[in-house]
Amino acid sequence: MNNEQFNNRNVSENGYFLLDIEDYPTDGWGKFQRVVKRTFRGELFVGLWVVLREMIKFDIHTISYPAEKMPIGPRYRGVHEMKRLWESDAERCIGCGLCEKICISDCIRMDTKIDENSRKEVSSYTINLGRCIFCGYCAEVCPELAITHGGEYEIAADQRASFIDYDHMLTPIDTMKANAQKEFEGFGAITPNEDAGVKKSPLSY
Amino acid sequence: MDTAYLIETVIKVVILLLVFSALAGIGTYFERKILAFMQRRLGPMNVGPYGLLQVAADGIKLFTKEDIIPANVVAPIFKIAPVITAATAFMAAAAIPFLPQFTLFGYTVHPIIADIDIGILYVLGVMAVGLYGPLLGGMASANKFSLLSAARAGAVFISYEVVSGLSALAPIMMVGSLSLVDFNNYQADGIGSWIVWSQPVAFILFWIAAFAETGRTPFHLIANDHEIIDGFGTEYSGMRWGLFFIGEYANMFFISFVIPILFLGGFGDGSVLGAFALLGKMSFFFFFFLWTRAAWPDVRPDQLMWLCWKVLMPIAVINVVITGLVMMF
Q1: Fold for domain A80-189?
Q2: Cβ of residue B56 closer than 8 Å to a chain A Cβ
Q3: Crossing angle, helix B119-129 and helix B238-263, to 10 degrees?
Q4: What distance in Å separates residue A64's CA from the closest CA in chain B?
Q5: How far does CA A120 lie from the centroid of its chain?
């Protein structure tokens, strides 16, 4: 199953048309005529044939959910992920705190410290998924494309507060070594033709 | 009454009860599967291979659920009502010849519990008594939706008894007997001798009435689907509710036997082929109950009454009169 069939939202192209519905009969004779017409026109058998045809075609649309899942769009806003740099496998997060500031449901908490190389480092980072509304502002505001949304949506919990922390969200180093980190294509991500759209600054003339 | 006859009858009763209780359960499985396939779903898939053990799971659930008798209900009537539905459904089966007679270890077995002379009258009459299940259950439930449903069930059942009785009358006049075995023997000369060719109108009317009497879609008014509750069964839980269910499905099976025996030649000349033909016809009519449920919407109660009293009953009466005239001249 692919996404294309869901992406076409142009209803006018999908064969929609207005039904030609007759007026309802008002008197007894008209109702009787309608019943006779419906009885001998065989409308009931049309219905029977339609369902029998579907049974014979056996075109089952069920997705047995826990065993198989619907494909989700690349822009889907699931549980957050922290990405690593492709060049060095180092964490992208620079601890700027913009995501904490912009979070409208106030669910991100982060602490930073200065590490031994005098670089700012994240010492603790949590997102309360119980409060998070998955609006995507944190991913949009992140200057380093570090915090993004992932595709995970099975986050039912037995408590209201359900925290994920930095290590949980960070791309595992094994995945990184295997070059399997997936970039987020949604809100805040670089669009494919970004380079062409960049305007040169006055300095480069 | 000799002892052999008594033992034989008891064995037949036990077999009938066991087979059709099991069939009622498996019938729910078929219904869910066929409805699912017609609606492009898979139906039960998780319990056992292809969900086959779903029946067992449902049975265990029904048996182990608490049997709640709510406050304010009329307890004795409330308790007995589901038993009436299930019991009358199985009692009606006593006069139905399910298979032709066959010889087992040199002993001739008649697969009918009682070949009484008034077979069809008995079957229709006992199925009509089944009305008291929904009616008393709904009235005793202390729930206004159950009461509404019971009133509707009473209206539907009584009305369609008229149609089924009058439509069965014309074939009865032709055969000259009420015994279902006589009906079968009357049509034993092959497809050409089936009553459906001489009584197509009666066949259609009886078939329509069968839908009303088993309470199936498109006449599924006894359960208040439009009120999103289960009609007269709303206050029932556990196995008492399950008895209503078994009664409904057993009724479907029995009426699916009665229609072919009345109109479509039954088991014919009594050969093995004839026996399988009867089972095949029965399967088709049972399948048709499920088929219509997937395809057709329910009618409104007033439309149902209108259909019964202003359309089907006059047609049935005219059919009887014409049959009588043809037989007279």
Answers
A1: Alpha-Beta Plaits (3.30.70)
A2: no
A3: 150
A4: 9
A5: 32
Q: Best of B40, B50, B296 to disrupt the A interface by mutation (most A CBs within 10 Å)?
A: B40
| Structural domain containing residue B204 | 69-328
- B227 domain-assigned: yes
Asked if residue B84 is part of any domain, the answer here is yes
Fill in the DSSP letter of residue B308. Answer: I
Residue B42 CA, chain-centre distance (Å), reads: 27
- Residue A29: how many CB atoms within 10 A of its CB? 9
In a domain, B7, yes or no: no
pLDDT tens, per residue, chain B with 329 residues: 688 888 989 999 999 999 998 888 889 999 999 999 999 999 898 898 988 999 999 889 999 999 899 999 999 999 999 999 999 999 999 999 988 888 777 778 888 888 888 889 999 999 989 889 999 999 998 888 889 889 988 888 888 999 999 999 999 999 999 999 889 889 988 888 899 999 999 999 999 999 998 888 888 877 777 777 888 888 999 899 999 888 889 999 999 999 999 999 888 887 888 899 999 999 999 999 999 999 988 888 888 898 899 889 999 999 999 999 999 88
Query: Best residue in B35, B38, B47, B309 to probe A by mutation, most A CBs within 10 Å?
Result: B38
- Say if A58 is an interface residue toward chain B (CB within 8 Å): yes
Q: What residues of chain B lie within 8 A of the CB of A60, using their CB?
A: 37, 40-42
Q: Where are the domains of chain A?
A: 4-57, 80-189
Q: Are B92 and B121 a contacting pair, CB within 8 Å?
A: no
Whether cis (ω within 30° of 0) applies to the bond prior to B76 is no
* Sign, Cα dihedral of A91, A97, A101, A107: positive
Q: How far is B46 from chain A (nearest CA, A)?
A: 10
ipTM for the complex shown? 0.85
Burial bucket for residue B98 (CB in 10 Å: 0-12, 13-18, 19+): buried
Distance CA B19, CA B55 (A): 14
Q: With an 8 Å Cβ cutoff, are B41 and A50 in contact?
A: no
Asked, for residue B12, whether it belongs to a domain, the answer is no
The predicted model scores a pTM of 0.83
**DSSP H or E segment with residue B303:** helix B301-306
Report the C-alpha gap between A161 and B326 in whole angstroms. Answer: 82
* One-letter identity of residue B6: L
Q: Please answer yes or no on whether B38 and A55 come within 8 Å at the CB atom.
A: yes
Query: CB within 8 A of B267, min separation 6: which ones?
Result: B97, B99, B100, B184, B261, B274, B275, B277, B278
Residues 272-301 of B with CB under 8 A from A: 291-292, 294-296
Query: How many domains does chain B contain in total?
Result: 1
Smallest CA–CA distance, residue A73 to chain B, in Å, is 24
